[in-house]
Amino acid sequence: MPVAVYPGTFDPITNGHSDLVARAAKLFDRVILAVAVNPGKSPAFDLAQRVALAETVLADIDNVEICAFDNLLVEFVQQRGADVILRGLRAVSDFEYEFQLAGMNRRLAPKVETLFLTPAEQFAFISSGLLREIAALRGDVSEFVHPEVQAALRVRYG
Fold this sequence. Notes:
ATP binds at residues 9-10, 17, 88-90, 98, 123-129. This protein is α/β, with parallel strands linked by helices. It has one domain (3-125): HUPs (Rossmann fold, 3-Layer(aba) Sandwich). Helices cover 42% and strands 18% of the residues. The chain has six helices and five strands, in the order E-H-E-H-E-H-E-H-E-H-H. A five-stranded parallel β-sheet has the order 3-2-1-4-5, with helices on both faces. The chain is globular, with a radius of gyration of 15 Å.
């Protein structure tokens, strides 16, 4: 079976992300969670912290590898010997952007496929940005993230 790369900033990793990884891990020999540097964003957590949190959250899934990347996604995918870019679609609003990305990635690397997965129903509304906002306002995010992520958000936002 092919190898899939699931890219994102994962700032922070949510239960929606981990649900998607767990389901993808059943479909692929290996899933690489690729944590993006993304210089266009100002992340709440630095790259090393995002990687460490993802390693903690996904530690019980054997065929998952977590690594950082700072180059073009299709280059990273090819360097890792992967065949598939895995993307999550939460709502119709995600589709247009993701469709555009998939088209560009196909143009840049025609042999790399993009596969879309939707999250489980209870995670469809979760986004990292929304959780950062709730945490910054001292709201309870325990239902949406791993306890280690919740603790990191508490430290980050006081």
